[in-house]
Design brief:
With 190 residues, the chain is an alpha/beta fold. The protein has a single domain, classed as Rossmann fold. Strands 1, 2, 3, 4, 5 and 6 form a 6-stranded mixed sheet that branches. The termini are far apart.
């Protein structure tokens, strides 16, 4: 019997029913069709504390509680709206607090992730690349086509259909990458 695959969708938007959450849902629906179990966490509900900047100090209690829950999953989808060419402040607080997972033992090493960003004007790729580069630096693995963006001001037509097709591709690819990663018995890091 195949081992269950679990994916946590992390909504970095302050809106629980907006465009960013809609994109996240598309990715998670695709992951479900590929056999994964999924769950959503809304950062706006977590009361995550601002990162204190001290490598020797644990994050706040709300953040630690979320991190313990987060560790149970095989993969993640980080979804953020774009605010001034960057991830949302909620996503940035999460990313800053993820410093806790950097050293010394990189506990998220080898886990799989994808990123979706939604923008009104521009900056979707820039914001997503920021998230992607930080997560890769703490040892997470992104599948092919691991960053998906969508611009609300671009009309959906045959030339832009890829913006909608890529969310389904991302969900499927995260599941594939998790299966591949689970078959690698070697240590990824130091």
């Amino acid at each position: 019997m195949a081992e269950k695959i679990s994916i946590l969708g992390i909504n970095g938007s302050p809106h629980k029913d907006g465009s960013t959450f809609g994109m996240l849902g598309e990715v998670l629906d695709s992951a479900k069709r590929a056999g994964a179990e999924t769950e959503v966490a809304h950062l706006a509900d977590l009361g995550m504390e601002i990162y204190h900047g001290d490598y020797e100090k644990e994050p706040g209690a709300n953040t630690l509680k979320f991190f313990e829950h987060m560790r149970k999953f095989d993969g993640y989808v980080f979804a953020s709206p774009v605010h001034w060419l960057a991830p949302s402040s909620l996503m940035k607080i999460l990313i800053d607090n993820l410093t806790y997972f950097e050293a010394p033992d990189f506990p998220l090493q080898g886990k799989v992730f994808g990123v979706v960003t939604h923008c009104c004007e521009d900056g979707g790729f820039q914001a997503g690349a920021h998230i992607l580069s930080v997560l890769n630096n703490i040892g997470l693995v992104s599948p092919p086509y691991g960053l998906v963006l969508r611009n609300r001001n671009i009309e959906r037509n045959e030339d832009t259909e890829w913006m909608w097709q890529d969310t389904a591709l991302l969900g499927k690819n995260i599941v594939k990458q998790i299966k591949i990663s689970k078959n690698i018995k070697d240590d990824w890091g130091y």
